[in-house]
DNA sequence: CCCTGATTCGC
DNA sequence: GCGAATCAGG
């Protein structure tokens, strides 16, 4: 089950959306989950939408570095963090409760909608495990331009709750 | 010091 | 194709 280890359409969609929204790679990675900012950036490059024309460092010459693999460099740990936000349906995050109305309360099975019954204007918020029979979607009225309903949008597109800090975008 | 994106390279 | 490592700049 590599649902959380592969770039699916939905993930790429979200990636594109967030990237186009001006979000930083780290933030996108943090939201999508399971991927580091490097993965996000790498995917972005592969998709061909690298410099969206918003990055200031455009004239930074990068004369590739000589990858001289010979010396036994000490193993360094940068970001071993890897979390799957898919589980945040039942658990927000170890951060802190900022939104008062996003307290997930487990959508009743009768509310869930099967993939075949999903419409374009319906919330495509996944509930349960994709490989389990109880898997379904929210099915609520999706916000225009977004794949989720207003309720799940708050969860999916979490605000700048604990994100490091408002970085300068100079 | 922190983070940003960009590129290269190994798997 | 994917992601870590690395670089270079702000």
TrEMBL record:
Region (Disordered): 51-78
Pfam family membership, one: GcrA
Superkingdom of the source species: Bacteria
Official protein name in the record: GcrA family cell cycle regulator
């Amino acid at each position: 089950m590599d649902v959380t280890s592969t770039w699916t359409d939905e993930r790429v969609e979200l990636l594109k959306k967030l990237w186009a929204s001006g979000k930083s790679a780290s933030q996108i990675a943090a939201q999508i989950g399971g991927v580091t900012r490097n993965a996000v950036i790498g995917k972005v490059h592969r998709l061909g939408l690298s410099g969206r024309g918003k990055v200031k460092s455009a004239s930074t010459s990068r004369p590739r570095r000589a990858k001289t693999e010979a010396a036994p460099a000490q193993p360094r740990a940068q970001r071993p963090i890897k979390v799957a936000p898919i589980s945040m349906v039942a658990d927000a995050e170890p951060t802190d409760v900022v939104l008062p109305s996003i307290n997930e309360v487990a959508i009743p099975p009768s509310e869930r909608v099967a993939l075949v019954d999903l419409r374009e204007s319906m919330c495509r918020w996944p509930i349960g495990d994709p490989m389990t029979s109880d898997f379904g979607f929210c099915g609520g009225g999706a916000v225009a331009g977004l794949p989720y309903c207003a309720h799940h949008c708050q969860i999916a597109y979490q605000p700048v709750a604990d994100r490091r800090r408002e970085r300068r975008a100079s």
